[in-house]
Design brief:
Blueprint lengths: L8 E6 L10 H5 L5 E3 L4 E3 L21 E6 L6 H5 L17 H8 L8 H4 E3 L2 E2 L26 E10 L9 E7 L12 E5 L13 E4 L13 E7 L13 H7 L6 E8 L12 E7 L3 H16 L7 E7 L8 H5 L6 E7 L10 H7 L1 H8 L4 E7 L3 H15 L4 H10 L3 E5 L1
Parallel strand pairs: 13-14, 13-16, 14-15, 16-17
Antiparallel strand pairs: 1-4, 2-3, 5-6, 7-8, 7-12, 8-11, 9-10, 9-12
Helix pairs in contact: 8-10, 10-11
The chain binds flavin-adenine dinucleotide (FAD).
Amino acid sequence: MTAATATPVMKQHLIDPEICIRCNTCEETCPIDAITHDANNYVVDPEICNSCMACVPPCPTGAIDNWLQVLTSEAYSKDEQFSWDVLPEAKELPAELIDTDVAAETETGRAPVSGEDDTESLEGVPSTEAGARIPPWSAVHPYVNLYTHKNVATATVVGNYRVTDEDTESDIHHIVLDFGTLPFPVLEGQSIAIFPPGTDANGRAYHARQYSIASPRDGERPKYNNLSITVKRVTTDYDGNPVNGVCSNYLCDLQKNDTVKVIGPFGNTFLMPNLAHANIIMICTGTGSAPMRAMTERCRRLTKNREYNGKLMLFFGARTERELPYFGPLMNLPKDFIDINLALSRAPEQPKRYVQDLIRERAADVLNLLDDAETYIYVCGLKGMEVGVIEALQEVVSSGGKHWPDVHAQLKAQGRLHFETY
Ligand code: FAD
């Protein structure tokens, strides 16, 4: 039993199955492993959760932020939560047992934040996370959750192109979605989620999948109300077994003029600095290039008007050049605009190289950039890259005679180190 069993009433933390897009962020963020999932739902174990709130800010949809006052002896178990399609209604509790503070918070769907200070060490940054929970100080304030499950936006496909070579295994598409006259303001680094049509084996509508926006804030085509995403067709699971990814295959097969159901935008921390002289270090693999393309293109457009003069440094990993999305356009960018470092792990007759190898090779330049308080680092791609990148940064910083834990904590506290991995 939890400490909460000492009191007859508890504020139970629940995840709304109708809104959750199963992105796994909460499970990854929870410092005490209170969140878990099955094929159906993400759930919070009432025996473990201590309401530390670490999972709440990173949740892209707000599905995580639900709190129900219940009798402690009747707290919903994990198994009950696994079976839910919707959150249960609040039950009436004996008046003498109701904690009025909790009741007020529960009505607004918002949990008390008093526990936050206990778990956070440095200006609001929990020590367990690799990246910042706050955006750069100069970032433009983003719109989030403008469209939700109850208010879905419709976009029209105006382009769908393969951006990896035809004869490679890696089928990655650049898909352009137009919102017509529907307001859908976004910033580089944000994402959207898309509902694939149809239902799963249990007859439930498929949940939405999240995709990073690959175009800048003023549109894939400047001054148009459109945006692009970069989608990899999933044909094998993480273990290499054949599988037909529901949403990625749906998206990669879309035709011009098809319509899609979109919610979002999401994300309020993985945002670029809004400062002419800020430097950006981008580290990515595969479709992790999407937000980097958005940021690079934003800077390229600004540079044309002499509104950006910072340094851009890109570390981009893929198996071969031909599997590198946007390879052609990327290599056409002027060398004095962006410093491109390609890490190829299966290039013929070349040793395997990963992004972390190149970060180490370029240690002196990375260090130089990090000395500037207006240098920001963004990492995006498969989850597995996080550890290698952090280790490489740690080595680089240590080689410069600095104490990595201090530098790391400062980067997080100043919103200068960001991860988006999936
Ligand atoms: P599902 O039907 O959900 O899964 C089928 C099987 O494939 C499952 O076993 C699953 O575990 C496995 N699987 C899922 N994804 C992968 C993968 N990438 N590689 C190997 N196996 C996988 N995807 C993009 O293509 N581009 C993006 O820009 C992008 N941005 C994202 C941003 C965020 C914040 C998050 C959380 C995810 C992002 N994703 C992105 C992943 C995307 O949301 C989907 O998970 C992905 O497209 C697979 O969905 P699916 O419906 O095709 O596969």
